[in-house]
Design goal:
alpha/beta; 8 helices; elongated; binds flavin-adenine dinucleotide; FAD/NAD(P)-binding domain; Polyamine Oxidase, Chain A, domain 2; single chain; seven-stranded mixed beta sheet; about 350 residues; eight-stranded mixed beta sheet
């Protein structure tokens, strides 16, 4: 681990990696400490290029489009053609058209490519994987540096940015001296966007539902998947359906529901991936299902510097622009970077 840097960024998700890139461009030395053995956080793509975290971006999201361009990524519109399905107890109806899937875009190969591209643009060894930050110590007298304790050793920095959902940061990291009471109250109550959700993706040899004029989208009042979309690749070289749920789900239950909606072929996917984000320690704190006050997103106290400019928060939940989205994570990164750069002038 690099023992002395200007800025430690906690978390190599969209916000942490974007922030590190902007600071590096400004000549500020950065270490990004990431608890997991991968970059991306809630950007998580698995073979053959399907997303278990974020899937879409929108054309009005300028920060995302800028990163896509910088990383040279290919994009394509979300498949929307065909009819959507509507499931209620005892029946499945085919609606006329597909209002569910309008105007969203996807990244070929999956959204994690954003994080991989940003990480690759940083100087070597900027990102240290498998390094969990466990404590931050802010000296009140003498040395103004922050001491960052991890499960891999200790380093110091002029300031630390928590590019982690605020409630998750407070659940896993201890602070000395203690954080101000108003900050603790807001940070620990701020929901984690999609943190209480399970996402399931079923992969097929082809998007067979399209041949029947179906879009692959569905709303369900039965569950366990409540909202379903077609996430086949751009050339339809494989078919894929994903759904969101807030229940504990198994492969058998998912394929049974997909077969009820899209027909018997849906019963036998090539593979099924299930990701429960609520039990993911580095995304969601215990009790994430109870965090529901979305008005706390972008709270002033989360956008301010603390301990005399030595502590910042920068996850998507801290953003005023598009909070919850990838766009919000990049906007939060830009806001924090501008504050840090301004303080050094
Ligand atoms: C199922 C799902 C679907 C979504 N769909 C969309 C979508 O379609 N479009 C969209 O725009 N957004 C979507 N989102 C939201 C989007 O993924 C997030 O807005 C964005 O990825 C958040 O980035 P972030 O950097 O703020 O936080 P995160 O991605 O959560 O990054 C935080 C990072 O910090 C690390 N970390 C945590 N604790 C520590 C610690 N103590 N020490 C070191 N590292 C630590 C984590 O491992 C992680 O890498 C979705 C999210 C989910 C889960």
């Amino acid at each position: 681990m690099r023992e002395v840097v200007d800025v430690v960024v906690v978390g190599a998700g969209a916000s942490g990696l974007r922030l590190a890139g902007i600071l590096d461009q400004a000549g500020i030395s950065v270490a990004v400490l990431e608890a997991r053995a991968r970059v991306g956080g809630r950007l998580l793509s698995v073979d053959p290029g399907v997303d278990l975290g974020a899937t879409w971006f929108w054309q009005n999201e300028n920060e995302v489009r800028e990163v896509i361009q910088e990383c040279g990524l290919e994009t394509f519109p979300q498949h929307a053609r065909g009819n959507m399905m509507y499931q209620i107890p005892g029946s499945v109806q085919e609606l006329d058209g597909n209002p569910l899937d309008q105007s969203a875009w996807r990244i070929a190969g999956g959204t994690q490519k954003l994080a991989i591209g940003l990480a690759e643009s940083l100087p070597p060894e900027t990102v240290q994987m498998s390094t969990k930050v466990i404590a931050l110590h802010f000296e009140s007298t003498g040395d103004p540096r922050v001491t960052v304790s991890t499960d891999q050793g200790v380093c110091t920095a002029q300031c630390v940015v928590l590019a982690v959902p605020p409630a998750t940061a407070l659940a896993n990291i201890s602070f000395s001296p203690e954080l101000p009471a108003d900050l603790v109250s807001v940070a620990s109550s701020t929901p984690v966007w999609m943190g209480a959700v399970t996402k399931a993706v079923a992969i097929y040899d082809s998007p067979f539902w399209r041949e029947r004029g179906l879009a692959g989208s569905a709303m369900s009042h039965v569950g366990p998947l409540r909202e379903i979309h077609d996430v086949s690749d751009v050339n339809a070289s494989f078919g894929a359906l994903f759904g969101f749920s807030r229940e504990r789900i198994s492969e058998g239950v998912i394929t049974a529901q997909l077969a009820e909606i899209f027909g018997p072929e849906a019963k036998t996917p090539r593979s099924v991936h299930i990701k429960d984000w609520s039990s993911s320690e580095f995304t969601s704190p215990p009790g994430v299902h109870q965090l529901n006050d979305y008005q706390l997103f972008g709270s002033k106290v989360l956008r301010e510097a603390h301990f005399g400019g030595r502590l910042f928060f920068a996850s998507t939940e801290t953003s005023i622009d598009s909070p919850g989205h990838i766009e919000g994570a990049f906007a939060a990164a830009r806001r924090s970077a501008e504050s840090i750069i301004a303080m050094r002038r």
